[in-house]
Amino acid sequence: MLRVGTCGWTYKDWIGPFYPQDIKDMRGKWLEYYGEFFRTVEIDSTYYSVPGERTVAAWIAKGKRIGDFDFSLKMHRDVTHSKILQDAKEAAGKAKDFEDQIIKPLAENNLLGAVLIQLSPRFKKHGPPVDNNVDTLRTVLDALKVDDYDYVVEFRHRSWLDESGKEYADELSDMLKERNVAVCIIDSPYFPRTKEATANHSYVRFHGRNFDIWWKKEKDVTDHRINRYDYLYSNEELDKWVPKLKEMDSVTDKTRVYFNNHGKAKAAKNGFYLMDELGIPHKKKDIHIREQFTLESF
Questions:
Q1: Most buried in the list 25, 54, 89, 107, measured by CB within 10 Å?
Q2: Element (H, E) at 206
Q3: pLDDT along the chain (298 residues), means of 10
Q4: SS3 of 5, please?
Q5: Among candidates 280, 121, 92, 89, which has minimal Cα distance to 189?
Q6: pLDDT of the residue at 194
Q7: Domain of 74: which CATH number?
Q8: Domains held by the chain: number
Q9: With contact defined as beta carbons under 8 Å apart, do 120 and 156 qualify?
Q10: 70: which residues sit within 8 A by CB, 6+ positions away?
């Protein structure tokens, strides 16, 4: 199974390029409209706040109406960017609570894709909270139902890589393989595109390639890009991924691909092109990208 989607769907700047004007003020209808074109979505909002029962119930109801659809979602930041830097057991407890409250209901309704544990860039292989944080991550994962749900870890510090700086250290890879937890494969300016397969499922995220502004805190007022994710992949850049993704799909049961370059619906445009190249059927839609320039640009 190979599915392509975007990271999130509730972007106001998608009105026009993706969402029609007649539903611009009806955000409750956006997900089902999105579901006419994509079979999966990554929920990013769960990183910022834990949704309540009503929100989860609404996702479930809409997902069922769409049909043949699934939600992947990010683990809450209290686990990945706070507790995991302080105490492994506390992080594990928070992760288990998130699993019970959010992940389990989606899974029980056959709407769960994968669960992304996107780690803090401050979470390094060697402390804090302990000298070897493979043990910390092991503690967190062992609190979760990794046999029942597809878990994915996105590493954001190069200390997790081996001496070559291109693949993950053996100790880490072995631990993940034992638990069937995938490593997130990333296309971005901040991390190498690793090839390691540690699970029977795979997960790819496209963050864009704005190398020049990725680490800048202030953006030039003459720059038309709204943020570091505002990047449109060229067809040639995506073409190079097609054989890689087909290979992933041939060796794993499920391959999920998400575009996080969400500015002005560029993620949706790139998603459509990639699905076409991969031979994934989908409803057609033309997305015209028009860059917005500030007055200082002229």
A1: 107
A2: strand 201-206
A3: 97 96 95 98 96 97 98 97 96 98 98 97 91 96 98 94 87 96 88 81 92 56 61 95 94 96 95 98 90 42
A4: strand
A5: 121
A6: 77
A7: 3.20.20.410
A8: 1
A9: yes
A10: 3, 39, 40, 63, 110, 111, 112, 113
